[in-house]
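Tokens as discussed.
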């Protein structure tokens, strides 16, 4: 998980900073949607790899 999370800041630090700035301005509902989407994407990836 940490390897995947580290790819964006390593390869594109400016894009990562801008993305983080945008995430900070999201409402709680929007942030929860991003969180559930991320979790479901991770589960789908695990299912496909397995």
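Sequence:
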């Amino acid at each position: 998980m940490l390897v995947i999370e580290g790819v964006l800041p390593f390869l594109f630090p400016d894009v990562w900073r801008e993305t983080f700035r945008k995430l900070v301005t999201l409402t709680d509902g929007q942030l929860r949607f991003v969180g559930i989407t991320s979790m479901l994407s991770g589960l789908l990836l695990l299912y496909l790899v397995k």
